[in-house]
From TrEMBL:
It comes from Dicrurus megarhynchus. It is found in: Endoplasmic reticulum; Membrane. Pathway: Protein modification; protein glycosylation. This is dolichyl-phosphate-mannose--protein mannosyltransferase. The gene is Tmtc4. SMART domains: TPR.
Length: 758
């Protein structure tokens, strides 16, 4: 009977827990929004977040994807897995002074898995993983917001109660459809932020799992606290912001678990109030847990510092101009202006840009600048929220506002320039985590408006309208991230003063062969930033190809004057000087390029061409050999060596070099052609014929291949085959040098043979 009575009363106890939980102030009482079961709420959030970014699944590799993925050797199977732990995000050694110091080995590991599973650089798989990650994070946000907005309370069976189902759904939807997240989802390198956010949230949920509620308060599990620290470390190995979750866990512990009133605590500390002894901090284990979090965080940061090897990365003034300002006042004003712009992107994410550097946001240098108003507005709002978070008598309000501000500000601190200089002015990707705080504050504001509004349905429709507008904005922005052309052109209206935007549009046009249009954008980039050496270099290259050598030389000379260690500009200057027949100056430019970049195969190749023009054959061969040592697949250098040795009568050496080259690059038809010529001259007709035919199979429309094979047959005495390939060669190129004369000689010989036969 006792057993049966216990079972009969269990449901009543469950209901009692629910009633006790609902006695506390609850956002959902005032929020006019949809109430869905937890499972359906998560399904809706997943579906909506998928719809926002689904059209980015078949986009190209764009912008930073080239350096972080396509040109990153750490993704390839031949690179040892262990190297990932000593290289930065871009594949450079962390110990190098030129390293970016972005240490994200776990993100690079996922790129590597993508690459290996797809069997190459196919962007679809990379994009699909990003979309799945954002959907997963958005679903997790339902649970996270239910804790942040409704508190951490449990039923008598230990099941966590969701006391704010409507509010948590609204906040999760706001997060899922925020357009500022497009860069993280549609840009493949944004995976660093997505993975960081995933483990960031898991760390928070793991910390919450450490607690169990009883009559005396909360008990906690050291195991789950340590799991939370480990997940925070994993988040940091995906992106540096991840470490901030340990601080947020501490804030959550103090506010939600220990229900500390920070203002009251500060007052007691200042006045040495004896009631502090009865505060219960030690009894509840807060200091012990914070000690664990601090020790874990310190250990993680120490290991990160040891691996990094050297000091912070060296950024340039164009990356972050405010950080290079001489005046502390100018730096402080501009940093705060950047904060206000980040806040505006959260509030009104309409003007989005892939890059905000290089003059996009001119420096504020005087208090008379009207943009000071933005700073005043930001701090007016922040101070108002902070005062309410600290001074309100409503503990529920204090908790939500403090958590909202904490999640807004703390994850943003690594990007704030307060602790170290960062390499950007504004980066939409770094707002991914702080947007959690924005969603909390927005939802709380909506609940306050709902409480005051007489027509709550109109307010709900307005919020639904905001969500729909954001979904459409996400879809539009995702489509712009599908290709570099759309992405770069979309930035022209947002940041017309950004030299990098014009540079990237120009580069994209140049890659497509539209040199005239590219010149226009390169010139504008140089006009906006007269020290933009990369724009000068690319513009000089195009002018060189158009034979406008004198202007090209002026631009390249200016580029190396501004940046004396710019190896590529030195090499291009050498090419121009070589074309102008100023050989000594060209040689000096090439050697200066090699001085600044020791492993520069293309420069050795061009140096070899210079020496060949000067008939310095030994020097030319040495230069080309250096190029092939540094880059074994350098086909042009191999070809030039074979041709030079052939032309100078060193057939045996030419043959040896040709065979060596084909072993390294077995499918290069130009090498087959060059070696076939050498073998033909050495009267190795059968082998020469085989190589010619293989080269023709690989490139059937090369007139010279057919013409030289015809010459081989002509020498060999296979006149009918010679006639056939002469005719194919002349059909492909009627003006092919020497072919017509050889063909006429063959025809006369065939006519003579016919007469003799007649």
């Amino acid at each position: 009977q006792i057993f049966n009575q216990h079972n009969a009363e269990a449901p009543n106890l469950e209901q009692a827990f629910h009633r006790m939980a609902q006695m506390e102030p609850n956002l959902d009482h005032d929020v006019s929004w949809f109430l869905l079961p937890s499972y359906w709420a998560k399904m809706v959030v997943a579906l909506v977040s998928f719809l926002c970014f689904a059209n980015s699944y078949d986009g190209d590799f764009v912008f930073d994807d080239s350096e972080a993925i396509i040109n990153n050797k750490d993704l390839r199977a031949e690179t040892p897995l262990g190297d990932l732990w000593y290289h930065d995000f871009w594949g450079s050694k962390l110990s190098s002074n030129t390293s970016h110091k972005s240490y994200r080995p776990l993100t690079v590991l996922t790129f590597r898995i993508n690459y290996l599973c797809a069997g190459g650089f196919y962007p679809v798989g990379f994009h699909v993983i990003n979309i799945i990650l954002h959907c997963t994070i958005s679903v997790l946000m339902v649970d996270v917001f239910s804790i942040l907005l409704g508190g951490l309370q449990f039923s008598n069976k230990g099941r966590r109660l969701n006391l704010a189902p409507k509010s948590s759904l609204l906040a999760a939807l706001l997060f899922a459809v925020h357009p500022v997240h497009t860069e993280c989802v549609a840009g493949i390198v944004g995976r660093a932020d997505l993975l960081c956010a995933l483990f960031f949230l898991l760390s928070f949920l793991g910390y919450c799992k450490a607690f169990r509620e009883n009559k005396e308060g909360y008990t906690f599990s050291v195991f789950w606290v340590l799991v939370s620290v480990i997940l925070g470390a994993i988040a940091m190995l995906c992106k540096e912001q991840g470490i901030t979750i340990l601080g947020l866990n501490a804030v959550f512990d103090a506010l939600v678990i220990n229900k500390i009133n920070f203002l009251e605590l500060l007052r007691k500390l200042l006045y040495k109030d004896k009631s502090l002894e009865n505060a219960g901090l030690l009894r509840k284990g807060l200091l012990f847990r914070i000690t664990l979090l601090m020790c874990g965080g310190a250990s993680i940061l120490y290991m990160r510092w040891r691996i990094m090897g050297t000091g912070p990365p060296a950024f340039t003034e164009v990356d972050n101009p405010a950080s290079f300002a001489d005046s502390l006042f100018v730096r402080a004003i501009n940093y705060n202006y950047y904060y206000s712009l980040n806040a505006w992107l959260l509030l009104c994410p309409w003007w989005l840009c892939f890059d905000w550097s290089m003059g996009c946001i001119p420096l504020i240098k005087s208090v008379s600048d009207w943009r000071i108003i933005a700073l005043a507005a930001l701090w007016f709002c922040l101070i108002g929220l902070i005062c309410q978070a600290l001074c309100s008598e409503d503990s529920h309000k204090r908790r939500i506002l403090t958590l909202g501000l904490g999640f807004l500000i703390i994850p943003f601190l690594p990007a704030s320039n307060l602790f170290f200089r960062v390499g950007f002015v504004i980066a939409e990707r770094v707002i991914y985590l702080p947007s959690i705080g924005y969603c909390i504050l927005f939802t709380y504001g909506f609940s306050l408006l709902s409480k005051q509004a007489k027509k709550k349905k109109i307010l709900a429709v307005a919020v639904l309208g905001i969500l729909l507008i954001n979904v459409m904005r996400c879809a539009l922005r995702s489509s712009q991230w599908r290709s570099e052309e759309q992405l770069f052109r979309s930035a022209l209206s947002v940041c017309p003063l950004n030299a990098k935007v014009h540079y990237n549009v120009g580069k994209n046009l140049a890659d497509k062969g539209n040199q005239s249009a590219a010149i226009k954008y390169y010139r504008e980039a140089v006009r906006l930033n007269p020290k933009y050496v990369h724009a000068m270099n690319n513009l000089g290259n195009i002018l060189k190809e158009r034979n406008e050598l004198h202007e090209a030389e002026e631009l390249l000379s200016l580029a190396v004057q501004i940046q004396p260690d710019f190896a590529a500009a030195w090499m291009n200057l050498g090419i121009v000087q070589n074309s102008l027949r100023r050989f000594e100056e060209a040689e000096q430019s090439y050697w200066t390029a090699i001085k600044h970049r020791k492993k520069y195969p293309d420069c050795y190749y061009n140096l070899g061409r210079l020496y060949a023009d000067l008939n310095r054959h030994i020097d030319a061969l040495n230069a080309w050999r250096n190029a092939t040592v540094l880059k074994p697949e350098h086909s042009l250098a191999w070809n030039n060596m074979i041709i030079l040795l052939d032309n100078t009568g060193n057939l045996a050496q030419a043959e040896a070099v040709g065979r060596e080259a084909l072993e390294l690059i077995p499918n290069d038809h130009s090498l087959m052609f060059s070696l076939a010529n050498v073998l033909g001259k050495s009267q190795k007709y059968k082998e020469s014929e085989a190589l010619f035919l293989k080269a023709i199979k690989a490139n059937p429309n090369a007139a010279s291949y057919h013409g030289n094979l015809a010459v081989l047959y002509h020498r060999w005495g296979n006149l009918d085959l010679a006639k056939k390939h002469y005719e194919v060669s002349l059909k492909l190129d009627p003006m092919a040098p020497g072919t017509k004369e050889n063909y006429n000689l063959l025809r006369r010989k065939l006519e003579q043979l016919q007469k003799k036969g007649g």
